[in-house]
UniProtKB/TrEMBL annotation:
Pfam families given in the database record: Trypsin (PF00089)
SUPFAM superfamilies: Trypsin-like serine proteases
Domain Peptidase S1: 39-317
Entry keyword set: Disulfide bond, Hydrolase, Protease
The keyword Ribonucleoprotein appears for this protein: no
Cross-referenced PROSITE patterns: TRYPSIN_DOM, TRYPSIN_HIS
Entry protein name: Serine protease 45
BP GO terms, sorted: proteolysis
Length: 321
C-alpha cells in the first residue's frame, strides 16, 4: 500500500464573522497561512495551555514514546470495577466537569445485553458498574498528589451510535463528573473548536494514552505501559482507510496515519490533539474509535470532527459546562 502523504499543512475555514475568542494560527507552512482556529463560544477559554511544555521528540514521529509528565493535562483514563485495575479507555477533559470518550467504552460498563439506554444515563444506579475518570496522572500506578479521581454521574452516548455496526463514525460519548476537577498545573481542559475547524491531509496531530504498545523485542506481544505514552500522527485521506476497512469506513469517520505508532487496547476514547502554534493552545479534533489488531494496519479510525461538533456543543451546554 502506498500511503497518501500531502505537504504537511493545516487549513482552517475562515469564519464568517470575527469571534472574540478566536485563536488565530499565523504559521506559514509551505506557503499556506493557517487561518482562524477558534474556541467555541461558551466553552472554557483557559484551556489547552499546559504549564509544562512538551519537547519535540523525533522518535514520536515513528513510534509511541514516553510522554513528559503533565504535558497532556487534559488526557484522562477511564476506570471501572468491572474492567480491572487499569485504565481500559482514554478520554479528554473539555471543561472542569465534562469528558469526551468513545461510546463503546461506556457501553462496556452498562451491562445491557439487549439495548442501550437513550438520552442522559445515570451512571450511579446500582445495576451499572461504577465508572471513574482519572486525571493528573502520569504513572497510573503511583498515588502522587497530582492525581484526581472523579466518579461519573451521567453519560450521554451519541444518538447515532450503533454498537452492532463497527466504525459507524458516531462512537462518541460525553461524561458528566459528579464533582468538578480542580484545575491546576497538572490538570486542565483542552480547547474545543468551532465547526469551522478543518485539518488538511498531512497535518500533524498527537494522541496520548496508556494503551498497548508493540516493541521490536516483544515478538508481536502487546505490552501495557504504566506511564503515559504519546505519538505524533498525521491526517490521512479517507481513501487510505477505505482500502483497509471497506464498507465499515463511514463518511462520518476520519482517517489517521499511525504507521509504527498504532493505537492499542486502552487508547480508545482518547483524543486527537492539534496544536495552534501562534497562540500555543491545543484543540480537540476527535476521539479514537478503533484500529486493526496487532498493529497490522497503518491507519486508525477517529470521529470526523465536523460530523460530531454540533452534537458535542449542544449536549455539553445541556449538561452544564
Amino acid at each position: 500500500l502506498s500511503c497518501s502523504h500531502s505537504h504537511a499543512f493545516a487549513r482552517i475555514r475562515q469564519s464568517t464573522m470575527q469571534h472574540p475568542l478566536s485563536a488565530v494560527v499565523c504559521v506559514m507552512l509551505f506557503g499556506v497561512i493557517c487561518r482562524a482556529f477558534e474556541i467555541e463560544r461558551g466553552f472554557p477559554t483557559t484551556c489547552g495551555n499546559p504549564a509544562i511544555k512538551r519537547k519535540n521528540k523525533e522518535k514520536a514521529k515513528t513510534k509511541k514514546v514516553h510522554a513528559m509528565p503533565h504535558t497532556w493535562i487534559w488526557h484522562t483514563g477511564l476506570w471501572s470495577e468491572s474492567m480491572g485495575s487499569y485504565p481500559f479507555c482514554g478520554g479528554t477533559l473539555i471543561s472542569r466537569s465534562l469528558v469526551l470518550t468513545a461510546a463503546h467504552c461506556v457501553e462496556k460498563t452498562l451491562e445491557c445485553s439487549d439495548y442501550l439506554p437513550k438520552g442522559v444515563i445515570d451512571m450511579t444506579i446500582s445495576n451499572y458498574s461504577s465508572l471513574y475518570v482519572l486525571v493528573g496522572a502520569h504513572d497510573y500506578t503511583k498515588a502522587d498528589l497530582s492525581r484526581q479521581l472523579r466518579r461519573v454521574q451521567y453519560a450521554v452516548l451519541h444518538p447515532e451510535y450503533i454498537p452492532i455496526i463497527l466504525l459507524n463514525g458516531y462512537d462518541l460519548a460525553i461524561l458528566k463528573l459528579q464533582d468538578d476537577i480542580i484545575q491546576d498545573e497538572t490538570v486542565g481542559p483542552i480547547c474545543f473548536p468551532t465547526k469551522h475547524a478543518e485539518l488538511q491531509v498531512g497535518a500533524s496531530c498527537f494522541y496520548a494514552g496508556w494503551g498497548g504498545v508493540f516493541e521490536s523485542w516483544s515478538k508481536g506481544k502487546e505490552l501495557y505501559p504504566k506511564s503515559l505514552r504519546e505519538a505524533e500522527v498525521q491526517i490521512a485521506s479517507d481513501k487510505d482507510c477505505q482500502q483497509y476497512y471497506d464498507e465499515e469506513f463511514a463518511d462520518s469517520n476520519s482517517c489517521i496515519n499511525t504507521t509504527g505508532r498504532n493505537t492499542g487496547y486502552g487508547d480508545s476514547g482518547g483524543g486527537i490533539f492539534y496544536h495552534s502554534e501562534n497562540d500555543d493552545q491545543w484543540f480537540w479534533y476527535g476521539a479514537i474509535e478503533s484500529s486493526a489488531p496487532k498493529a497490522l494496519c497503518p491507519f486508525t479510525i477517529v470521529n470526523k470532527f465536523q460530523a460530531v461538533q454540533e452534537w458535542v456543543k449542544s449536549t455539553a451546554m445541556s449538561l452544564g459546562l
